[in-house]
Amino acid sequence: MTKSAVAGIAGAAVLSTAVVTGAASPAFAAMGKGRVQICAVGNYGSYLSFVGNRPLFATYVAAPGQCVKADIPVGTTRISVFGLWSSGNSFEMGAFLASASDDPGWKVYTSGSTANGGATRSWWANRN
Questions:
Q1: How many Å is the Cα radius of gyration of the chain?
Q2: Which residues pair with 37 in a beta bridge?
Q3: Does residue 25 surpass a pLDDT of 60?
């Protein structure tokens, strides 16, 4: 999915969005201070939204089976986790407290399926 598609998804949720840099990477990579990684382990794409005292930022979408890394923007107080339906619409899965000074950084995983209304979708986050 492109940067503009991510912005469109977040914009549809009435949010002001700017995309931060990220790159696909393996899930086993170590996370440094102020970094976060989202891995879409399920059958749907997922992304993170950074909430705080600055404009809202979002990561690139992690396609199913892929991971995306990003820096946590300064001023972030919470990270929201989103999944994507096959239609391209997003759904919020949850959130956790985090900041750019967190050391080590965070790894976030989304799993399960969007079949049957997403009955098996889930997520978890941990610091390594």
A1: 13
A2: 69, 107
A3: no
Say how many CA atoms lie within 13 Å of 11 toward its Cβ: 8
Cβ atoms 102, 33 nearer than 8 A:
yes
Q: Which two tokens stand for residue 57?
A: 């930022």
**Planar angle of CA 78, 115, 36, nearest 5 degrees:** 25
pTM of the model: 0.76
pLDDT tens profile 30-68: 689 999 999 999 999 999 999 997 777 888 999 999 999
Least confident span in 25-34, 42-51, 82-91, 98-107: 25-34
Residues with Cβ within 8 Å of 59's Cβ and at least 6 positions away in sequence, in order, are 6, 19, 20, 22, 36, 38, 47, 48, 68, 70
Q: If you ran DSSP here, which 8-state letter would residue 12 be given? A: H
What residues does each domain of the chain span?
Answer: 3-112
Q: Which CATH number fits domain 3-112: 2.60.40, 3.30.70, 1.20.140, 1.10.10?
A: 2.60.40
